Structure formats: C-alpha cells, structure tokens
Recover the amino acids of this structure.
C-alpha cells in the first residue's frame, strides 16, 4: 500500500458559501465527497476506499464555524476539535464532550478534524458521538431545498453509513442546555493513548442529592452504530445510588451493547471493559454533579 | 483533473504553485518547493513526522491536500532558526539534552514543542507528553525530548 501519494484523480472545488456548497452537492451529489478536516477522507483517498470524482472543500465556510450557548447549545459542524475542546474546557456539565476530544489528543488532528466530520463519516467509533448522544443532541442537515433536523440517535444506520443523502451536508449539532446538578464523563479504551477506540462509554447524570434523576449512557465501538443503552438507563431512574446499584447497572451496560465479533477486540472483552468503564465514568460524573472532586 | 494555482507564504517567502488536486502538502513542500526538512514517514496521520505549521497551527502534511492551503502562511522546520543560522532556543535544548538520535521525528517534535510553549509557557510534564502525543519517536524514548521542552520553558521563565 502506497501512502506517499494519492493515485486517484478528482476535481477540486472550494466554495466560499454554504449556498455554493449546496449547489455543488446538488450537481455532483453521488460523485462527490465533502472535505472538512481531511483526517479520514484523505486517508480513504490514498487507500482507494473512496473514489469521488469531485471533492468539495468546506474549510472556508465561516457559516459552519459559529458556536453559541443559551437555552440551546449550537455547534457549527465546521468547528475543529480544538475550538470545541476549548469552548467546553472547565465545564462540569459538558465535561464528557470535552473529555472525548481530549482523548483524541493529537495536537495536529485536533487542529484539522471537525466535529461535523467525526459524525458525518458514520464511524461507530466516533469519539464525540457517545457524549453527544447522552445530551440528546440533534443534527441539522441541509440541501438546496431546505433543512431538516433529526435526533443524533437516528443519524447513524450502520458502520460508515448515515441517513444523510448525497446532496446533503451536516451543518450544525445542537442540544438543549442541561440543568444544574448535572455532569458528564467519557471513558475510552484504546491500544495506545492516541489510537482509535476499542470501546468508549459516555455517562450524563442528573443528580438530586443521593437520588439519580436520570442517567444517560452511550457507547462507541460497541455496536454497528454509536448507541444508547436503554435497559441500563431505565434501571437508574429515580433510584437512590449506592455501590450495589451501579455494579448491577454496569453489568447491564455490558449486556445492552451489541459488539461486533470481528476485528482486533473480542466481544467478551468489549462487554467486560464497558462495564468497568461505565462504573468509572459514572462515579466521576456523580461526584462532579454535586461539585465534589 | 484541473490544476489549481495557489499562493502561499512558506517561511516568509511567497510562492505561486500550480497544483493538481491530489497532491499532498508534504510532497509539495519537499519536492516542489525543495524543503526536505519536513519528513514523510507513515503517511497515515499516525506519526507526526510530516508536521508543518499552517496559519499558526501544526497540521499533518501527509493528510492535507496542498490545494486547500491557498493563502496560508506556512512554517516548516527550515523557518524555525533565524535566517543567519542561529538556532531557536528549543533546537539548542534538543542538542543539549540529547533529544535526537536518528533525527527523523525531530522536525515535527520541534514544531509541536514550540506550539506548546507558545500556548502554555510553563507546561507540566503531563501537558508536554499530551501535546506531543501525535509525534512518534522510535529512538529516544521521549525523555530527552520532554527534558528539552522543559529546559526551554525554564529558560523562558527565568527571563
């Protein structure tokens, strides 16, 4: 495999506005790929995994680079990881999203890769997907005819597959601001620190004293798509939290996931690790939600 | 495949380059411009040897299409020392702490190390190791590199 160059040939477009981008997508749709940070697409072009006739570079679209915080938090899909990481640094409520980006770690990748690209390429291992799933995030897709908003949990349909049509672009990620006494955490297991995830788990806890009002749990690399673990979550609603409850729920998280049986990491390992990671993440978030360290 | 003309400034010098869309920044810097300090190693964004600084931020030259950096200011390792040859304090520190063996990772390490010191003038060891996480060294075991960054930070602080 030659990683020194890209032998595939394609036409390059660098639209300056979203409108121009949508026009290009409507013209070239099935033959086009959107280039954001390039950390996935350029590798795919080298390996011939993707062979688009047209590459549409959206790096110049300032319209996709806003980020705002109110009753709804909106993150433009074109923001790179570094910007999003800095925006959420120090947040107790959204610590899970911050930690998911921190876990990717590599300085150069954080400068290049975008949060929109992380979701839009459809990987079940996307590190930002689990925390965003626990925030009940929604995503906005646009084409020439308009815009649609859908729940992030409806977005991924299989490994590297999403509901996004050829003429659509992911423009924004949004979620409702979470109440106080909420915190989130992200746990990841990988071969080495900066590697692609073997398994990830995000937890968002809304706490009322010793009672768990709600605990949302999402896992990555745990199924063909990033997923919430519904049965485990149900066991937590309104419960007084103690060690025994969390250990029981942790086992349920391991049962809820649907890990693939191929690849470097076995199903059993993933089920076992995700239970451990849920426990670690839960206790961190639980303490943080009441301002404990 | 239509070629595109881009204008870039590399280490303070202006270049007008006529490039095919599938040309990678690392190859353009090395072969078209002739600045071979930037290294090609893994080609898949794992090792950081191809790091160049684009508009103030380190990026991977092996995963960047050169046509996308139109209008950018680029710094490569050749642009780090002063024009008359005086080394950057971090480069001096790399020599002092034996942070170099084969030298292949060094250009990327120096650029990322400088980036860290620009953002966090007095970083902790954890912060140093986290910031250079995307740069692989197979000779030194990283300790010399970490010492070099610490030494430069301490010298900056003392001033």
């Amino acid at each position: 495999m030659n990683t020194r160059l890209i032998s595939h040939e394609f036409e390059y477009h660098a639209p300056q506005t979203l409108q121009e981008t949508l026009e290009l997508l409507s013209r070239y749709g099935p033959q086009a790929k959107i280039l954001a940070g390039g950390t996935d697409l350029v590798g795919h072009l080298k390996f011939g995994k993707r062979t688009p006739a047209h590459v549409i570079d959206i790096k110049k679209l300032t319209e996709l680079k806003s980020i705002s915080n109110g009753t709804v938090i909106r993150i433009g899909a074109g923001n790179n990881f570094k910007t999003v990481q800095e925006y959420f640094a120090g947040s107790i409520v959204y610590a899970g999203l911050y930690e998911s980006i921190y876990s990717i770690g590599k300085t150069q990748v954080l400068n290049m890769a975008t949060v929109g690209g992380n979701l839009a390429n459809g990987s079940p291992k996307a590190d930002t997907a689990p925390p965003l799933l626990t925030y009940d995030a929604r995503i906005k897709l646009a084409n020439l005819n308009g815009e649609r908003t859908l729940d992030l949990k409806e977005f991924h349909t299989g490994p590297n597959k999403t509901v996004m049509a050829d003429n659509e672009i992911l423009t924004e990620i949004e979620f409702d601001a979470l109440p106080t006494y909420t915190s989130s955490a992200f746990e990841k297991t990988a071969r080495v620190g900066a590697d692609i995830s073997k398994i990830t788990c995000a937890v968002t806890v809304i706490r009322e004293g010793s009672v768990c009002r709600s605990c949302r749990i999402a896992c990555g690399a745990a199924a063909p798509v990033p997923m919430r673990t519904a049965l485990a979550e149900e066991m937590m609603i309104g419960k007084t939290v103690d060690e025994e409850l969390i250990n029981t729920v942790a086992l349920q998280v391991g049962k809820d996931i649907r890990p693939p049986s191929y690849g470097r990491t076995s199903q059993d390992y993933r089920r076992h690790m995700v239970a451990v990671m849920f426990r670690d993440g839960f206790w961190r978030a639980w303490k943080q939600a009441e301002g404990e360290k | 495949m239509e070629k595109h003309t881009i204008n870039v400034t590399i280490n303070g010098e202006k270049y007008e380059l006529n490039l095919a869309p599938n040309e990678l920044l690392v190859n353009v810097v090395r072969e078209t411009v002739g600045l071979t300090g930037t290294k090609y190693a893994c080609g898949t964004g794992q090792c950081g040897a191809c790091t160049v600084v684009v508009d103030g931020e380190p990026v991977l030259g092996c995963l960047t299409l050169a046509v996308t950096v139109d209008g950018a200011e680029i710094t490569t390792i050749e642009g780090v020392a002063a024009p008359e040859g005086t080394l950057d304090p971090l480069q001096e520190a790399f020599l002092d702490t034996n942070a170099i063996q084969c030298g292949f990772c060094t250009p990327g390490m120096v650029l990322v190390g400088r980036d860290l010191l620009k953002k966090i003038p007095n970083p902790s060891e954890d912060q140093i190791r986290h910031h250079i996480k995307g740069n692989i060294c197979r000779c030194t075991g990283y300790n010399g590199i970490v010492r070099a960054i610490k030494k430069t930070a301490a010298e900056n602080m003392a001033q």
The first strand of chain B starts at residue 4 and ends at 10. Strands of chain B lie at 4-10, 13-19, 51-54, 57-60, 73-75. The helical segments of chain B are 25-32, 89-96, 106-119, 125-131, 143-158. Chain B has five helices and five strands.
